[in-house]
């Protein structure tokens, strides 16, 4: 029996909604059965009609979605809610869904600031429901392979990490005109207390912690608004310290003219290093002392990859996979987590799904970066925020 999903957001004109739906459907594990796709009822109904949903299960508000679905039988109601709205709705939708008894899979960030995310953490604990965040880049097979290499200690102690995330789509003042995506991302009332560092800096932060298995414990940052009259940061850089003793740099910018989505990470250990970039996601480069550089390739038939990594691949070596497949890995892992609560399927760990604790640490990183930047780039300790 498929896992039944409801969706809030993702109507006509929303980029990410269609991505979520394609990813959720890719493995045949999940069925979209209900939703509130827009604050505009007419637009929401049109989206539901195009998706072939029962009109009675296309709702005018997320509150109505939760209350009406909760009245249905256990074997018919939605089991989890995908939250694909702008940032300002992540918190209220997630809390309402948890209180109504539904699991939640939300786009990042979990909420607009640290205090809201801590409040959500309490709601998740009280609800005893599953909560996940869609940090998509951690679900690429070669990122998981990198994580396994480090977990086994093949590179020795981690000494330095360099992660960069340059984009160029907000490089000019006119880039915000006529764009819904740019509009809410540059609006403090909708984006939260930070712009670029919340939007893409949290992806870079999660990638560091996911791959290394360590926590970013201190940060020294310089954030700025490059474009005149922009209220939130659109560019920033940070030094950071890891709990294992290593150090690193993290840069995130949306004003790098000519860049698309060039997230990449390098990790240096005492015996070797590795490198992965999102725009060439099927390769992982490894360098060991005294050995030739090696490039690992994703593929279901690549026996040199860990078994769990091959399970994330869908095609043979040389057949590219990308963003939607990585998203699908998150949905598949989340579906398995939901099945484990049904008690009709073996319990499996969703190792690609970020939880609420990761959401708290991400927003603690953003808060620490903001405080550091305001204090002439002094060092700020993050542990008190998430311990």
Automatic annotation (TrEMBL):
Top-level taxon of the source organism: Bacteria
Alphabetical list of Pfam families matching this protein: GFO_IDH_MocA, GFO_IDH_MocA_C3
Domain Gfo/Idh/MocA-like oxidoreductase N-terminal stretches: 3-133
Residue stretches making up the GFO/IDH/MocA-like oxidoreductase domain: 144-274
Entry-linked InterPro entries: Gfo/Idh/MocA-like_OxRdtase_N, Gfo/Idh/MocA_oxidoreduct, GFO_IDH_MocA-like_dom, NAD(P)-bd_dom_sf
PANTHER family: CONSERVED EXPRESSED OXIDOREDUCTASE (EUROFUNG), OXIDOREDUCTASE
Name of the protein in question: Gfo/Idh/MocA family protein
């Amino acid at each position: 029996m498929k896992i039944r999903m409801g969706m809030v957001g993702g109507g006509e004109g929303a980029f990410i909604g269609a991505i979520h739906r394609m990813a959720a459907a890719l493995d045949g594990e999940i069925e979209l059965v209900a939703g509130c796709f827009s604050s505009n009822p007419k637009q929401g109904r049109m989206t539901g009609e195009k998706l072939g949903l029962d009109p009675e299960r296309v709702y005018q508000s997320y509150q109505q979605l939760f209350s009406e679905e909760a009245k249905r039988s256990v074997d018919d109601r939605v089991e989890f809610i995908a939250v694909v709205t702008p940032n300002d709705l992540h918190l209220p939708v997630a809390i309402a869904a948890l209180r109504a008894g539904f699991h939640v899979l939300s786009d990042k960030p979990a909420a607009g600031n640290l205090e809201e995310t801590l409040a959500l953490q309490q709601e998740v604990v009280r609800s005893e429901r599953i909560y996940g965040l869609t940090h998509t880049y951690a679900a690429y097979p070669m990122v998981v392979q990198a994580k396994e290499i480090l977990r086994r200690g093949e590179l020795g102690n981690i000494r330095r990490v360099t992660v960069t995330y340059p984009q160029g789509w907000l490089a000019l003042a006119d880039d915000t005109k006529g764009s819904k995506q740019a509009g809410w991302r540059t609006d403090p009332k909708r984006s939260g207390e930070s712009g670029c560092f919340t939007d893409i800096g949290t992806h870079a932060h999660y990638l560091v912690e996911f791959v290394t298995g360590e926590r970013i414990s201190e940060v020294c940052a310089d954030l700025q608004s490059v474009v005149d009259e922009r209220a939130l940061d659109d560019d920033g850089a940070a030094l950071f310290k890891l709990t294992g003793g290593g150090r690193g740099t993290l840069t995130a910018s949306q004003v790098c003219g000519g860049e698309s989505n060039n997230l990449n990470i390098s990790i240096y250990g005492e015996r070797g290093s590795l490198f992965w970039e999102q725009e060439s996601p099927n390769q992982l480069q490894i360098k060991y002392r005294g050995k030739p550089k090696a490039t690992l390739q994703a593929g279901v038939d690549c026996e040199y990859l860990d078994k769990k990594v091959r399970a994330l691949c869908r095609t043979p070596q040389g057949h590219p996979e990308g963003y939607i497949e990585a998203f699908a890995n998150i949905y598949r892992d989340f579906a398995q987590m939901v099945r484990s609560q049904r008690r009709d399927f073996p319990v499996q760990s969703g190792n690609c799904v970020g939880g609420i604790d990761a959401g708290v640490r991400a927003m603690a990183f953003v808060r620490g970066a903001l405080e550091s930047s305001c204090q002439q780039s002094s060092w700020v300790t993050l542990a008190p925020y998430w311990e």
